[in-house]
Write a structure and sequence with these properties.
One of its GO terms (molecular function) is D-glucose transmembrane transporter activity. The chain is mainly α. It contains 9 helices and no strands. Helix 2 runs antiparallel to helix 3 and helix 7 runs antiparallel to helix 8.
Length: 190
């Protein structure tokens, strides 16, 4: 039934695509990007119903005044801007580490795939909960560096458990637990 499950997301996207033209543009977009005051007020009334939206409109006008000198760049302009190279390199490194970490290339028996999928989902949920609660306390740099250190330690333990799993059968269970811990460490850190 994978084909039905995968086609469901396509069906939802198709429904969104069909109904999207009937929705108004975002009021901040109309005011800040298009500089259309009347369109902004019309969109506010269309989205939120009849009412007095002068406070929200005044807030948007203040935001427009603050960002008046700021130039909005497209993707190519951002890529050419040298001041954002460190951030772009960091993002590229993080995305490559996700693709090259090997989590998407695990070869499993078909009978245990549902359990592994459930375990991965629970591990990701745990990492989201922990990350959102500790990121303000420790900061992103600490989570990145600490996450990579913990991931490296887990990978060393995982390799050791895989090498010794023929001699000690209980190490196979440890390997699965270490994979889940790796996912949690990756989610909390990088």
């Amino acid at each position: 039934m994978w084909n039905v499950l995968l086609s469901f997301s396509g069906l939802v996207a198709l429904i969104q695509l069909l109904f999207l033209p009937f929705f108004p543009e975002s009021p901040p977009y109309l005011l800040l990007q298009k500089e259309d005051k009347a369109g902004c007020l019309k969109a506010m009334k269309q989205l939120w119903g009849e009412g007095n939206y002068h406070t929200e409109f005044d807030d948007l006008m203040k935001e427009k005044a603050i960002t008046k000198g700021t130039k909005i760049m497209n993707v190519l302009e951002v890529l050419r801007e040298r001041s954002v190279y460190p951030q772009l390199c960091t993002m590229l490194l993080l995305l490559l580490s996700l693709q090259l970490c090997g989590l998407s290339a695990v070869d499993l028996q078909e009978s245990i795939i549902p359990y592994v999928s459930l375990g991965v989902s629970i591990s990701e949920l745990i990492s989201i909960i922990f990350c959102s609660s500790i990121i303000d306390r420790f900061g992103r740099r600490m989570l990145l560096c600490g996450g990579y250190v913990v991931m490296a330690l887990i990978l060393v333990l995982l390799e050791t458990s895989l090498l010794l799993s023929d001699q000690f059968l209980w190490l196979r269970y440890c390997s699965v637990i270490l994979i889940f811990l790796f996912i949690i460490a990756y989610g909390i850190g990088p």
